[in-house]
Amino acid sequence: MPTFKASATLLAAITLCLALVYLLLPSIPLFAFAQERTADGLFMARRGALPFAGLAVMLFAARDCDPSHARRAICLAVIVTFGGLAILGLIALVRGTTGWMTLPSIAVELVLAALFVPHLAARSRAAPRL
Question: 71, 73, 79: which is closest to 126 by C-alpha?
Fold first, then answer.
């Protein structure tokens, strides 16, 4: 199992790249998900860059955290975010509202969510309560 630092650093790099692509080249994700390139679609893709940028900053800043309630919350947020994206992508694929290129995204999102599951079990090294 990779360390929390390795997992957080990897995902920070991935989410930073996603943020840059969605912000600077929004036509690429629209094409990848077989969506129409409209002004509305470009705007929403650019808006989608900001949560990815926020995740990148949070994960990079927290990469050295010891096991704690805050680190557990970060892990839960990552699992919900990427698990939710995978579920949403699968639903869109089944309904036919997105293209086959959604499959690799779903696979990566599931792996990224699963990468943080083992870190939920890490215990805090805080002194025991009396």
Answer: 71
